Fold this sequence. Notes:
- The protein has one domain.
- 32% of the residues lie in helices and 15% in strands.
- The protein has 13 helices and 14 strands.
- It has helices spanning 5-14, 22-34, 46-58, 94-97, 108-121, 161-165, 186-192, 227-233, 264-275, 291-300, 303-309, 320-329, 344-351, and strands at 59-63, 82-88, 104-105, 130-137, 175-176, 179-180, 195-196, 212-217, 242-245, 253-254, 282-286, 310-311, 335-339, 362-365.
- The chain has an 8-stranded parallel sheet with strand order 1-2-4-8-9-11-13-14. It has a two-stranded parallel sheet with strand order 3-7.
Amino acid sequence: xxxxxxxxxxxxxxxxxxxxxxxxxxxxxxxxxxxxxxxxxxxxxxxxxxxxxxxxxxxxxxxxxxxxxxxxxxxxxxxxxxxxxxxxxxxxxxxxxxxxxxxxxxxxxxxxxxxxxxxxxxxxxxxxxxxxxxxxxxxxxxxxxxxxxxxxxxxxxxxxxxxxxxxxxxxxxxxxxxxxxxxxxxxxxxxxxxxxxxxxxxxxxxxxxxxxxxxxxxxxxxxxxxxxxxxxxxxxxxxxxxxxxxxxxxxxxxxxxxxxxxxxxxxxxxxxxxxxxxxxxxxxxxxxxxxxxxxxxxxxxxxxxxxxxxxxxxxxxxxxxxxxxxxxxxxxxxxxxxxxxxxxxxxxxxxxxxxxxxxxxxxxxxxxxxx
Length: 371
């Protein structure tokens, strides 16, 4: 049988990529772009690059070493919308998860990473509109008591976590045949939830970064950046419009001279709200709280220390003054969401003293009576 050459060429053409309708090609590229390790496909041709490159660059995940590499990105800056700075702390051995090694996380590595990032972004234009997410963790965090927590952006989509949990057998850290049979000790909890030293924001005047429009600190970052440190960090970003802040509830509260809980963290939050500039339009707060962790600290720490110098909450308390501070600030915002940090009833009572909300478009609050 003789096959005409023209017929063969026509058959080949019909089976080629170019013969597919544009809608089908786009659907295929959309599916490819969702797969892992397909980033290099953007170099195949201009059509592939136009769809895959923006998805590759839409979210950049950087570590302390690669932050300076942003300086080399010039032509594709407009494609970048989110930068995740993942700051890795040194590993630690079991002896550190068995004893309290200070309440502050040293600032040197974190400060250096932030300085590199600010230096790399300072020449970017305000029109680039970057959302910056910060995360701090140690590779040793999941090696001890808190194996069932996710750390760092690389592990967030770990769909095999439940399968991996079945293999955990580490009696020394409370895990037997995939089940946590013993609560963590106080030392390991305080190690994981350390407050980052305010020194990360100290020193010479840092570079200004006008391109950053949003700041995100999620609760997956167990190390804590307290409100006063956050307030100083925000000075680096003169055009920030949105703040997503998800701190963990303070583990140990100091007592004042009358033996009452001194809400220093809440007072710092009130100061932060007063200092937020007018160009901040959206504030989202989620204060996480784990009753089991608080109970574990209470049971493991020296009772005399707890009664004399500090108090540990086993249930959440709110301050009416902080609810009032959020009510006052809401008049300058377009969006406000506060989960668990305040009681909605305190907020609404304070609203009776205010006149109008010219900018506010959405409001989300919680109340202890509903949780």
